[in-house]
Amino acid sequence: MTGADLPDRAEVRAMLAAFGQRAADTLPEDLGSLELTWLIAEFEQRYDIQVDLDDDRFGAVRTVDDATELLRAAVLAERAGARP
Amino acid sequence: MTGFSPSSLPPSSPPHADAPDAWVDRSLLAGPGGEECLHLGAPIDRDALRALVDEQAAHLAAAGLGPGGTAALRLPPSVAFVAVLLACWRLGAQVALLDHRLTDHEVDSAVARLAPQVLVGSAHRTAAALRGFSEVEPVAVRLPDGLPARTGHALIQLSSGSTGPAKVIARTAADLLRELDCYRRLVEFPGEGERVVLLSSVVHVLGLVGGLLNSLHARVALTVPERMTAAGILAAVAAGDRPTTVIGVPFHAELLAGAVAPPALPQLRRMIVAGELVRPGLPALFTDRYGVPLGTMYGMTETGVIATDLSGALHPAKRPVHGMRLRLVAGELQIGAAASPYPGLDDPTRWSDGWLHTRDAAELDQATGRVSVLGRLDSQVSIGGLKVDLTEVEQALTALPEVREAVVVFEDGAIEAYLATEPDADLARVQDGLARRLAAYKRPRRLALLPRLPRTATGKLLRDPAALRTTTTAAAL
Predict the structure, then answer these.
(1) H helix runs in B205-311, sequence order
(2) What is the pLDDT of residues B413-451, one digit of tens each?
(3) CB proximity A15 to B under 8 Å
(4) Which chain B residue is nearest to residue A62, measuring alpha carbons?
(5) Which is more confident, B16 or B125?
(6) Which one, of B29, B15, B21, lies nearest residue B212 by Cα?
């Protein structure tokens, strides 16, 4: 398995900018719980996946990088036929 | 004086004494037995709900709960929550609702203050961040230090407090029925034969009264989506044919407005949001996407709904609901309220002489009576409709051994904390300590460490977010 065509940080930032129609240069690096909920809804919509997290795993996603990693793992798992 | 002090409460009539006899059965459980009233994963008709309430009432009575008793519920949104709440009320008890997202530390301190006789929790820890509801097995535990009800209130709720500990807010059964009557008079609010898709938590006033209790009272079928993502919410709307209203907070409207190519939803009548101010542009975006209005409401835990604009035509103004008296005093909106909703609290800055001080800045149009709420006058902020007082977050931080001082601000819709810590303090320990003391939605999105916090010329901690950010940037160089 390779990382080809996997979503990247820029893509996650673009999704984040759509939350509240914000300018890209005003985006925070750290995520609030609403921003993370928004991102997960976006991940599911764009990649046709379902990201199920328990509260602890949800709370562990604190930055754009964490969210990018979460999305990449979810997409890889979907391609492998198993959900995270 | 602050806080809930049992000894200072005057003797009063027992809970539910101000409502008609058997009000739970007559006002919330009446109607054809075979009619669907709830849908949390599977449909539940009224006969099934009545049977669940009977069953829970038997469990609670076995745990010692009876007329004039007290119970605290720590349950996630679930069928069990509904059955336990109605069972407690039917038994004549006073019910305190604790958000299931509170930490053990927060629940322990709430229980110590409220002294419920019975604590109802879930047998298993249910944890799924984006689920709309849970399947739980309620467990009622008799607490040795519990006290019977000391006031005639039926409902006790906690709000994040500006003095650190949570504020206790109480309502009587008659006041809940009054609010339900206000909803009944609003022709655009969901009524008999219609359907509600509820996104707000049933532990808080909008979801509890506007969502759950109104649906039971007005015979509206209530659905809670399995997943609180745009796709999950839209699937729940699409799953029924009846005219459907979605009730949530502005964040939910953001989620739905951001949905790419949503399906045609001919049954969708409108969405109604409350709990915080709506971003300019959001109503138009929502209507453009779905072809129906984004209505708004204004209310507070103390009184429930105060004013509405259900068609979105008055935005940002709202029309006061039936019987609501409003006035402005030095820019602050005040609401007519015969009695204080704060048991044991004698604080004239919150309630005095028949007026409730909302601490919201507002404009009142004398000609039309309409109100436009402008924002908070104190340190309370709203995170996805959940109220958080920044003072509570600051106090939780400074209570940690690693933290010397802290300033907590609200910036770009999120809570941020600036900290001066002890030398060699470990940020991970601060985060872990905070996670034990504060529910996740109250925790800062970002912790910025500084050698010392900037102060004004008079020595007060600086609270301006821009100045704090500048100091942080300079410290990092």
Answers:
(1) 205, 214-218, 230-238, 250-257, 282-290
(2) 889 999 988 888 888 899 899 988 898 889 998 888 888
(3) no
(4) B445
(5) B16
(6) B29
Q: How far apart are CA B201 and CA B248, in angstroms?
A: 9
Contact with chain A for residue B463, Cβ under 8 A: no
> Tens of pLDDT along B11-67?
578 999 999 999 999 999 999 999 999 999 999 999 999 999 999 999 999 999 999
- pLDDT band at A64, cuts 50/70/90? very high
Which chain A residues are closer than 8 Å to B260 by Cβ? 45-46
CATH number reported for the structural domain that contains residue B55 in this entry: 3.40.50.980
Answer yes or no: is pLDDT of B365 > 90.
Answer: yes
> Which residue, B99, B53, B94, is CA-closest to B74?
B99
Distance from C-alpha of B263 to C-alpha of B237, rounded to nearest angstrom: 10
| A32·B279 Cβ contact <8 A | no
pLDDT digits (tens, 9 = 90+) for B203-247: 999 999 999 999 999 999 999 999 999 989 999 999 999 999 999
Using CA atoms in the order B116, B120, B121, B122, what is the torsion angle rounded to 10 degrees? 180
Q: Residue B158: which H helix or E strand, with range?
A: strand B155-161
The closest CB to that of B445, out of A31, A53, A54, belongs to A31
Nearest alpha carbon to residue B292 among B262, B251, B260: B262
**The domain A9-79 is classified under which CATH number: 1.10.287.90, 2.40.128.280, 1.10.1200.10, 3.40.50.300?**
1.10.1200.10
Say how many CB pairs under 8 Å bridge A and B: 81
Under 8 Å between Cβ of B308 and B297: yes
pLDDT reading at B8 higher than 60: no
Q: For B440, name the nearest residue in chain A, comparing CA atoms only.
A: A59
> How is residue B134 written in tokens?
């849970």
Establish if A63 touches chain B: CB-CB under 8 angstroms.
no
Same domain, B142 and B157: yes
Calculate how close chain A gets to B356, using CA atoms only, in Å. Answer: 31
Read off the amino acid at residue B210. G
Residue linked to tokens 């009587």: B172
Annotated domain spans of chain A: 9-79
- Is B367 exposed, middle or buried (CB count within 10 Å of its CB: 0-12, 13-18, 19+)? exposed
pLDDT for B161: 60
Chain A contact for B412 (CB, 8 A cutoff): yes
What percent of chain B lies above the pLDDT cut of 90?
69
Encoding tokens for residue B460? 């007060």
pLDDT of residue A1: 43
Dihedral sign of CA atoms B399, B400, B406, B407 in order = negative
> Where among B110, B138, B170 does a domain terminate?
B170
Cβ–Cβ of A46/B260 closer than 8 Å? Answer: yes
